[in-house]
Amino acid sequence: MLPRRLNGTAYTGAGSLNTRVTLLKKSVARDAEGEEVQADEAVATVWAKVEPLAYKYTEKQERVATESTHKVTIRFLSGITADNLVQLSDGTVFNIEAVNDPDQRKVEMWLMCFARR
């Protein structure tokens, strides 16, 4: 039986964490010529539950933009902030907008993410 939150609902079961994601940290590296380039450094690879929350498709001035928001649930991992990124196994990268520990017990985290393509 899963432990319960303060409000009585169960935490996300391990079987629901069925997507492998890599948490990234933005960093600056130098190329062969000594110039600074943006690089993403892997912080951790974890199992997660990825849920789409909203989707928007826009065509403006001959340009198409799609925006989507997702909730990514992972086991608690210290040091994860809105400065990190989430990368799915298919290469899709999400910006983390907010990090939430739903009941402040350090059991699981909700990463509210935004993807723009």
In short:
The protein has no helices and six strands. It is an all-beta fold. It has one domain: Bacteriophage SPP1 head-tail adaptor protein (Thrombin, subunit H, Beta Barrel).
Protein described:
This protein is mostly beta strands. The protein has one domain: Bacteriophage SPP1 head-tail adaptor protein (Thrombin, subunit H), CATH 2.40.10. It is 0% helix and 62% strand. The protein contains no helices and 6 strands. A hairpin with a 7-residue loop joins strand 5 and strand 6 (108-116). The termini are far apart.
SSE layout and pairings?
Elements: E1 19-30, E2 36-60, E3 63-75, E4 84-88, E5 93-100, E6 108-116
Q: Give the overall silhouette.
A: globular
Strand content of the residues, in percent?
over 45%
Please tell me the total number of domains.
1
| CATH-scheme architecture | Beta Barrel
Oligomer: single chain
Q: Rg from C-alpha positions?
A: 17 Å
Mean pLDDT across every amino acid position: 86
The chain-level structural class is: mainly beta
Helix content: under 10%
Biggest β-sheet strands, sense, barrel: 6 strands, antiparallel, barrel
CATH fold descriptor: Thrombin, subunit H
